[in-house]
Each structure stands twice: as C-alpha cells, then as structure tokens.
Amino acid sequence: MSSSIFRKNLAWVAEQTQADPHVFTGIGKTPDPRILWIGCSDNPHSSLEIAPFGREGCLVHRNLGNQVSAQDANLLATLAYAIDSLQIERIVVCGHYGCHCLRHVLRGKALGAADYWSSPIRSLFRQHRRQLDEIVSEEAQIQTLCELNVRMQVRNLAEHPLVEARLAVGSLKIDGAMWSARDGLLRDPGIAGPRTPRPSRRASAASADMMTAP
Ligand SMILES: [Zn+2]
C-alpha cells in the first residue's frame, strides 16, 4: 500500500480528533445500524459524507451503478444479514448525477470486463431510448437515466422475497435518493418503494368493482 495512504489516514485522524476528542472512543460500542445504504462504487463521496449517520452509522453496500441484482451474491449476503440479523428498518438506494458508469452506457462506450455488469443498465437505456433522445443536453440525459436507474433498482429491491416479506408487515421502508456533486445535496426525486403490501389480483378486481359500483 502506498505510504501516502497512511499519511492521509494520520492527517484524517488528527482532523477528526481535533473536532471531537472522543470520536473514536465509542467505536465498537455503537448500536447496530438501522439503515442499509446501497450506493455506487464510482461516487467518490461515501454515505458518511453525504448523510452523516453519527455513531450509529449505517450498513453500506456499493457497486457500479448502485444496482440491485438477484445474481449479485455480495448484495444478497448483505441484504440477508441486514434483514435477518440486524433487523434494519430502512434501505436507501442512492444514485448520483453524473455517474461515470451510466455515462459510459449513455455514450455506448464499452466497459471491458464490466460490460456484463452494466447489461441491465444498457437494457434500461434501450427501453427509454426514445424518451432520452428527446432530451437536448447530455447532462440532462444522464440525469434522467440516473433517476430511471434508481427507480428500477428500488423496484428490484421491493421484489426480493426477503424485502417483500418485511414490506408486507410494514417493518421496512425503501427510499430512492439522488445525490449531486454540484451542490452536495441529497434529493428525494419521489422514488419510494411500496410501504404496504401490493393487493392481490383478486383484491384489485374486487376494489375495481367497488369503484365502478353505482
Ligand atoms: Zn456511479
């Protein structure tokens, strides 16, 4: 490891300790995190910088494009641990405007060995190609694709059996969020997972009958 990494760590420790002399004394005695944060690997700013969670912290999973994939053993293990062991109460799927991974997809650039990983995002791009082509600037296109991606990942998450079961009893919430490097603000673009169980087809039909009844 580069010696500069150790020097930077020393500087960071000094800075943190100056701000709070007891900042490290409570580590290891903190309660279990109540939040699972799913973010993007190519966002250089961590969840702790974006939305400081204090000493309680949060459980973090990051991958390229903040994806929720049923084929991702790493995510599935984290999800099972978060839900079964930690009994977390909230999952945040956080995208970021200007995501390099999504920008490569938008420009049709190859990601080499990571091409297989970005395949779902390329499918999403093709699915919304017409909508994106109507947007004039590339920056606005990438913003829209980032939001569409978070929406898709929230949907994927809500459909996972472990998550679905917790959503059904109201003991878990999912939020989609977007972070901007331009102003540092975390935005709620109105992307939220279902908070109540989805009605069955039979229940939906009954409800529709009631709505149309005179
Ligand atoms: Zn990214």
From TrEMBL:
Recorded family membership: Belongs to the beta-class carbonic anhydrase family.
Keywords: Lyase, Metal-binding, Zinc
Source organism phylogeny: Bacteria, Pseudomonadati, Pseudomonadota, Alphaproteobacteria, Caulobacterales
Region of interest: Disordered: 188-214
Catalytic activity: hydrogencarbonate + H(+) = CO2 + H2O
Descriptive protein name: carbonic anhydrase
Pfam families (alphabetical): Pro_CA (PF00484)
EC number(s) given by UniProt: 4.2.1.1
PANTHER family from the UniProt entry: CARBONIC ANHYDRASE
Obligatory cofactor(s): Zn(2+)
Organism, scientific name: Asticcacaulis taihuensis
Cofactor: binding comment: Binds 1 zinc ion per subunit.
Domain of life: Bacteria
UniProt binding sites for Zn(2+): C40, D42, H96, C99
GO molecular function: carbonate dehydratase activity; zinc ion binding
